[in-house]
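Throughout our pipeline, every protein is held as a single compact record rather than as scattered files. The remainder of this section carries one protein's record, kept here as part of the documentation.

===
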Amino acid sequence: MLRLYVKTGCPFCQRVLDYASEHNIPLQEKNIYDEEQNLKELLQIGGKQQVPFLFDQSAGISLYESDDIVEYLEEHIEGENISPQRPSAYSPPSS
């Protein structure tokens, strides 16, 4: 699961959230203003109080900067969330 650390009112965080929503990429959103534990996690994993911060535990990737996060989602995640199309029932006539 992808975790995205954000804070209320952050336009850079919103950019990442909008991109993920538009491309059906599930994110576990952790607002550092809502719970003190979220801030502690951010500092423990990332080392600084900067958002947005993406943590992809399965890949061992952590990123700051909305441009870098969106690029990562584009290149590594987006295709994984597209359901494969069912094969067509149509068979062309044999010649």
User: Anything to note?
Assistant: The chain has one domain: 2-81. Residues 3 and 48 are 16 Å apart (CA to CA).
